Amino acid sequence: QVQLVESGGGLVQPGGSLRLSCAASGNIFSLHAMGWYRQAPGKQRELVAVILSGGRTDYADSVKGRFTISRDNAKNTVYLQMNSLKPEDTAVYYCNVDHSTPRGSLRNYWGQGTQVTVSS
Q1: Is there a contact between 25 and 17 (Cβ–Cβ < 8 Å)?
Q2: Which of 3, 11, 16 is nearest to 95 (CA)?
Q3: Are 92 and 115 in contact (CB under 8 A)?
């Protein structure tokens, strides 16, 4: 079992920055893709950014050039640096990871979510 704990959300003015963190703990054997999703009120959950174990990244078009995803494999942690925030970035942000066991069983995990509000 893997637990994910997110932190770093909050209220920020338009144009400001926030850094989200998601630390994985528990019986960790191998973490593969680690990513961030978000869900705004009345909308579906959407992918924001993902980083593979080798470091390759992918971003939603709406955040390209403003957000940067990174990971620290030694700390089992994924980060999301969010710059030039806009009101439309307001949402609950969720961490998501793929984990495999020594037997090769792959399972996907979600964090509890952290609120990001961009408002003046």
Answers
A1: no
A2: 3
A3: yes
The pLDDT of 80-105, averaged and rounded, is 95
Q: Is 55 exposed, middle or buried (0-12, 13-18, 19+ CB in 10 A)?
A: exposed
pLDDT in tens, 55-91: 999 999 999 999 999 999 999 999 999 999 999 999 9
Distance CA 120, CA 78 (A): 28
27, 46, 76, 100, 102 from 63: Cα distances, Å = 33, 12, 24, 29, 35
Distances in whole angstroms, Cα of residue 6 to Cα of each of 18, 43, 107: 13, 21, 19
The pLDDT-based confidence of 104 (bands split at 50, 70, 90) is confident
Tell me how many degrees the CA angle 61-33-46 measures, rounded to the nearest 5: 35
60-65: which pairs have CB atoms within 8 A and are 24 or more residues apart? 62/88, 63/89
